[in-house]
């Protein structure tokens, strides 16, 4: 690699790593090697059956888009209160949030409709929980369900290369490094090719039916190719993945997905932001 360090510039790992300085980059102020809460903070609760604590990142959009789809299907039990968790300010380390998600990552869901409140964390787990609870967007026939779960877990396993790998080193690291950018760019382009080849033969990832696998993968890879995620659209030649673009545009055109993308979004044009969501009236 052309950026291979030499001499004193090369990092030599110590025998035992110690946390003695900020790591640098956009999220240096909240990164730490320990779990648990940093401060006491009770989370708000609304009147709806479901309480969501999240942010409109790709993982957050997975859940809000699904909830809006369920509401469009007529499931009143899917009404939810959504509260924004500002991860840049470390709100995910508040005691109330950690009680729901000990991993301190958004989104986190609390279902108040069960005999005792049910906590659900990890976006994929929340999607399966909601799909099973309302009997929507997750096939029940064995092989169709397996295909759907396979694509859902493919996304859960693949997206860290996109977000924590490519996204971090391309957009958020304190300076550009060729080796990690090359490494993760190669991997996400391979992942996009997996999707593109599949979607060349299918309308949706599992065939003719729109499922939670589509919602989950759209939230990361669809937004990557049509919404310029990480400002990398030209760099990765996003438009060349024509089948992914077609599929992503089809999903993003759905009214429920459009609303879901707006929930817990404190950025962008003011008229598109829904910082808190409590009812359909919050969408103007």
Architecture overview:
It is built from 8 helices and 4 strands; from the N terminus they run βαβαββαααααα. With 284 residues, the protein is an alpha+beta fold. It has 2 domains: 50-137 and 263-282, 3-Layer(aba) Sandwich (Glutaredoxin); 142-253, Glutathione S-transferase Yfyf (Class Pi), Chain A, domain 2, CATH 1.20.1050. The protein has a 4-stranded mixed β-sheet with strand order 2-1-3-4, with helices on one face. α6 (212-226) packs across α7 (242-252). It is globular, with a radius of gyration of 20 Å. The model has no long low-confidence stretch (mean pLDDT 95).
Which structural class matches the secondary elements?
alpha+beta
Strand content: 5-15%
Distance between the termini: 51 Å
What is the subunit arrangement here?
single chain
Q: Strand arrangement, largest sheet?
A: 2-1-3-4
Summarize the structure in short.
The longest helix has 31 residues. It is globular, with a radius of gyration of 20 Å.
Write the SSE topology.
Layout: E1 50-54, H1 58-72, E2 80-84, H2 95-100, E3 108-111, E4 118-121, H3 123-134, H4 142-172, H5 178-199, H6 212-226, H7 242-252, H8 255-262
Helix pairs in contact: 1-3, 1-6, 1-8, 4-5, 4-6, 5-7, 6-7
């Amino acid at each position: 690699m052309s950026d291979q360090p030499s001499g004193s510039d090369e990092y030599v790992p110590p025998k035992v790593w110690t946390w003695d300085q900020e790591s640098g980059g956009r999220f240096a102020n909240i990164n730490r090697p320990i779990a648990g809460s940093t401060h006491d903070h009770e989370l708000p609760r609304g009147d709806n059956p479901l309480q969501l604590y999240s942010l409109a990142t790709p993982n957050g959009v997975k859940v809000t888009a699904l909830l809006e789809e369920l509401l469009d299907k007529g499931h009143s039990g899917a009404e939810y209160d959504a509260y924004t968790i500002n991860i840049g300010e470390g709100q995910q380390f508040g005691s109330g949030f950690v009680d729901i998600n000990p991993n301190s990552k958004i989104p986190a869901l609390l279902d108040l409709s069960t005999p005792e409140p049910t906590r659900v964390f990890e976006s994929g787990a929340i999607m399966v929980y909601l799909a099973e609870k309302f009997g929507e967007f997750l096939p029940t026939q064995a092989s169709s369900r397996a295909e759907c779960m396979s694509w859902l877990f493919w996304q859960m396993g693949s997206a860290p290369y996109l977000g924590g790998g490519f996204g971090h080193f391309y957009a958020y690291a304190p300076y550009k490094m060729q080796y990690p950018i090359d490494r993760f760019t190669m991997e996400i382009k391979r992942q996009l090719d997996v999707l593109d080849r599949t979607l060349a033969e299918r309308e949706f990832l599992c065939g003719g039916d729109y499922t939670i696998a589509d919602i989950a993968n759209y939230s990361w890879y669809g937004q990557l190719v049509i919404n310029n995620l990480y400002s990398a659209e030209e760099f990765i030649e996003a438009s060349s993945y024509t089948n992914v673009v077609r599929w992503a545009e089809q999903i993003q055109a759905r009214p429920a997905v459009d609303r879901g993308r707006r929930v817990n979004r404190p950025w962008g044009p003011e008229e598109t932001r829904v910082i808190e969501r409590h009812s359909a009236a919050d969408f103007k």
